[in-house]
Design goal:
The chain is globular, with a radius of gyration of 19 Å. It has helices at about 5-20, 25-45, 55-75, 75-85, 85-90, 95-115, 120-130, 135-160, 165-180, 185-195, 200-205, 205-215, 220-245. Helix 2 (about 25-45) packs antiparallel against helix 3, helix 2 (about 25-45) crosses helix 6 and helix 8 runs antiparallel to helix 12 (about 205-215). By secondary structure, the protein is an all-alpha fold. The protein has one domain. The protein is about 80% helix and about 0% strand.
C-alpha cells in the first residue's frame, strides 16, 4: 500500500469521523454501549459475585450488544450517500472505490474501538477485586473488537444495497443475529437432532464459536482467519455492489 493510497483512505476516514462526531449520533451510541455492556455485566452477569476475578460476565453479553450496536453505527455508511445523492459525487472523486470503502469502514471501526476502550473501568474494577489473568482479558477484548467490526462489515453490504437506513439497520440486525444463533448450543443441538452433524458444521460459521475461544485466552490463527475472511468477503461484496450501481 503506497503513500498515496494511505493518504486517500485517511482523508475519507477523517471525513467520516467528523460526520459521526459532528452530530450526537456517535456520542449517543457510545454512551448506550457503555451503559448496556457494563449494566448487563454487573446487574445480570453478577460480575461482582464471581469468586475468581474474571471478565467472563462482561464478555458474555458483548456479541449480543454488538448485534444491535454495529448495525446502528454502520447503517449510514452507504445508505446516507444514496439518500443525499452524493454517491455519484463520491464515485467521481479522484479516488478508487476501495479507498472510500476502506475509509468508511475504518471510521466505523474507530467507533467500535473507542466504545470498547471506554469500558476500562470494568477491567480496573476486576484488578482491584482480585488478581485476574489480564492476558485472557486482552484476548477477550480482541475477540470483542473482531465481532464488532465483522458485524460492521456485514452492515456495510446491506447499506450499499439500500438508501433506507432503517431497512439497512433491520436487515443487518437479523443477519448478525443469525451469525450468533448458528453457534448457540441450544440451536446447534436442535439442528443436529434433525440432521446429524449439520449443527456442528453451521456452528463453524458462527461468530460465537470463534469468539468464545478468544474469550478463553486461546489465540488460534483459525479464529482470527475466520473473522478476517468474513470481513474481507463483505468488503469485496460491497465493492461489487457499488461497482454494479455505478455502471
Amino acid at each position: 500500500m503506497n503513500s498515496s493510497t494511505c493518504r486517500h483512505i485517511w482523508t475519507i476516514t477523517k471525513k467520516e469521523l467528523r460526520s459521526y462526531f459532528s452530530t450526537p449520533l456517535a456520542w449517543v451510541l457510545i454512551v448506550v454501549f457503555l451503559l448496556l455492556s457494563q449494566g448487563f455485566a454487573f446487574l445480570f452477569g453478577g460480575l461482582l459475585e464471581y469468586q475468581n476475578a474474571s471478565l467472563a460476565a462482561f464478555f458474555l453479553y458483548v456479541p449480543w450488544i454488538f448485534m444491535v450496536f454495529a448495525p446502528a453505527v454502520g447503517m449510514r455508511l452507504w445508505s446516507e450517500e444514496h439518500r443525499l445523492g452524493t454517491m455519484e459525487l463520491l464515485m467521481t472523486m479522484p479516488i478508487s472505490p476501495w479507498h472510500a470503502i476502506m475509509g468508511k469502514f475504518l471510521a466505523a471501526a474507530v467507533i467500535v474501538f473507542v466504545s470498547l476502550f471506554l469500558t476500562f473501568p470494568v477491567l480496573i474494577t476486576i484488578n482491584w477485586l482480585g488478581d485476574p489473568d489480564n492476558g485472557i482479558a486482552f484476548a477477550g477484548y480482541i475477540g470483542a473488537f473482531l465481532v464488532g467490526i465483522t458485524f460492521l462489515a456485514v452492515t456495510g453490504v446491506i447499506s450499499a444495497l439500500t438508501r433506507s437506513m432503517v431497512v439497512s439497520f433491520i436487515v443487518a440486525l437479523f443477519l448478525c443475529l443469525g451469525m450468533i444463533m448458528s453457534g448457540w448450543p441450544i440451536v446447534v443441538a436442535s439442528i443436529d437432532g434433525w440432521i446429524p452433524g449439520l449443527g456442528q458444521k453451521l456452528a463453524q460459521l458462527s461468530v460465537l464459536t470463534h469468539y468464545n475461544e478468544l474469550t478463553k485466552g486461546i489465540l488460534v490463527s483459525s479464529d482470527i482467519l475466520f473473522f478476517a475472511s468474513v470481513i474481507g468477503f463483505c468488503l469485496y461484496l460491497t465493492a461489487v455492489i457499488l461497482k454494479t450501481k455505478r455502471a
